[in-house]
Write a structure and sequence with these properties.
single chain; four-stranded antiparallel beta sheet; 6 helices
């Protein structure tokens, strides 16, 4: 059997618990606050100089720093064996703090997560990407990678969207949960467009994804297909904001 299973089952008498991983400003986190359904119980920064550290502390969120460059100590940052060791540290921090997350939410976390971390939290690690990952060309997702916003503008796209997806070991290729509403380009530079997307696309899409998950309305089957609960039945596919009906 390969029936879809909810990512989170409500009715536990508590809010869904979220731990955030970030490397910079953690811009999506304010959109995760103030819900009756979920709460951010802690956060880990991969950089000791991340601007999000003080911001999240001011929001009352416990923050731990696990500086990845210090951990690598001059070793190649792409060495994935060292990455697994680093992720053991992340897992240890989460355990020692007693955060017990239902969801790991990456908000500008800039490093690939390996199988070690993903298996610790199966089908529970979310990420936001500044492009519509449902756009496919030649059998592949068209706008992946660090320069996705620039690539969209250079390709002549008139609007951009953000995607909330489950992470897997291939960056920007995990199952899609929510695609945000559109933000017209309107002559902005890639940097200007991406900065505005954080408020207009990333944050709202993240909040919707978390609300759906916290209500028990998002499920995954054994083949990593995503389903959304509609009219009492599981429907395969993701949500596009503004087109839910």
């Amino acid at each position: 059997m390969c029936d879809p299973k909810p990512i989170f089952a409500p009715g536990k008498g508590r809010k869904m618990r979220i731990v955030v991983l970030f490397s910079g400003g953690a811009s999506a986190v304010p959109f995760m606050l103030g819900s009756d359904l979920f709460e951010v119980v802690g956060a880990i920064s991969s950089s000791k100089s991340a601007s999000g550290i003080e911001k999240l502390k001011r929001l009352g969120i416990p923050v731990e720093v696990a500086d990845i460059k210090d951990f690598y100590a001059g070793r190649p940052i792409r060495d994935m064996n060292v990455r697994k060791e680093y992720e053991e540290r992340l897992i240890r921090v989460i355990r020692e703090k007693g955060w017990e997350p239902d969801i790991i939410a990456c908000s500008g976390y800039m490093y690939v997560l390996t199988e070690r971390f993903l298996k610790e939290f199966p089908d529970r690690v979310l990420n936001v990407h500044p492009a519509d990952l449902s756009i496919v060309e030649g059998g592949r997702r068209k706008y992946t990678g660090l320069h996705a916003v620039r690539d969209q503008i250079e390709a002549g796209e008139k609007e951009t969207r953000s995607t909330i997806h489950l992470m897997n070991e291939v960056p920007d290729h995990g199952p899609i949960i929510v695609v945000s509403g559109p933000l017209p380009v309107e002559g902005r530079s890639p940097e200007e467009q991406q900065a505005l997307m954080k408020e207009k696309c990333d944050g709202p899409a993240y909040r919707m994804a978390l609300e759906l998950i916290a209500r028990g309305m998002v499920a995954v089957d054994c083949k990593k297909n995503v389903y959304v609960l509609k009219d009492g039945r599981w429907v395969k596919g993701h949500i596009r904001m503004g087109e839910e009906g």
